[in-house]
Write a structure and sequence with these properties.
The structure is a single chain. By secondary structure, the protein is α/β, with parallel strands linked by helices. The protein is built from seven helices and eight strands; from the N terminus they run αβααββββααβαβαβ. It has helices at residues 2-16, 40-43, 52-59, 141-144, 154-167, 188-208, 235-241, and strands spanning 36-37, 73-80, 89-97, 103-109, 137-140, 176-181, 216-220, 247-251. It is rod-shaped, with a radius of gyration of 42 Å. It starts with a helix and ends with a strand.
Length: 255
């Protein structure tokens, strides 16, 4: 008799005890059938420590009729679609509660679904494109020299004085490249020589105004890299049209 009483008591305790955590119900019993779709962003708001009222507002009614009060587990059947048109991924989600109805943990079936709650990694920072080097200072050769000359004019020296003033305290630390260009009138050999002599004249003046000699390099490119073409025209008109090609460029001013 004593054994029978103990057995009945054990059986009743087993029937009334809490379900084994991680023992998931049959998905076919879910209501609504097939479970529900849930927002991952919303689901990531879940955390142990939330009470049943909070979880009910966040996730809705459990899908297996556990009820609101006294139960120690809630079970959900969630569906997630990885991309538009892709078949859904189905996961069972079980929340474990303590005696006060506060969430103390959770289980997933399959266990791989737990990765869905992991924080979304921040996108890798996009490396900023390297800054483009400052455009060279472009000065009309006609503002520096008389036509077909490599001797700086008074106006040309005044213009270069402005360049030195622009450099200010950086004048002793810059690295400059002075490049001379001509128009296409005349032979290539002559234009190459003229462009080099003009670049050297500018370099020499900058050095005379305090730029270290080793910091200024001069080169001539003749009629290469024209800014305008102008086609065929009478000589005087062609000289005027090709004026933009006659220039001196100083790289390093803005660095």
């Amino acid at each position: 008799m004593k054994w029978t009483t103990m057995a009945v008591a054990a059986l009743l305790a087993g029937c009334g005890g809490a379900p084994v955590r991680g023992d998931f119900p049959d998905p076919a019993r879910a209501h609504p059938a097939g479970g529900t779709y849930v927002s991952l962003d919303g689901l990531r708001q879940y955390a142990p420590g939330m009470n049943k009222q909070q979880l009910y507002a966040l996730l809705g009614t459990p899908h297996f009729g556990e009820g609101m009060w006294g139960v120690r587990e809630w079970n959900y059947l969630f569906n997630f679609r990885r991309s538009v048109g892709a078949p859904p991924l189905q996961c069972q989600f079980q929340i474990h509660f303590d005696a006060q109805g506060v969430a103390v943990g959770q289980s997933w079936k399959p266990a791989t679904c737990a990765a869905l709650l992991e924080p979304v990694p921040a996108p890798a920072p996009v490396a900023a494109a390297p800054a483009a080097p400052p455009a060279p200072l472009r000065i009309s050769a006609d503002a520096l020299f008389a036509f077909d000359s490599a001797e700086l004019s008074g106006a040309g020296r005044a213009k270069l004085d402005e360049v030195v003033a622009q450099l200010g305290a950086r004048a002793s630390t810059v690295a400059l490249t002075v490049t001379g260009f001509t128009d296409r009138i005349g032979s290539d050999a002559y234009n190459q020589q003229l462009s080099r002599r003009r670049a050297e004249a500018v370099r020499d003046y900058l050095v005379a105004r305090g730029i270290p000699p080793a910091a200024v390099r001069a080169e001539g490119r003749g009629s290469a890299q024209p800014l305008v073409e102008c086609g065929n025209a009478p000589h005087a008109e062609l000289v005027r049209c090709l004026a933009p090609n006659r220039r001196v460029e100083i790289a390093g001013i803005g660095s």
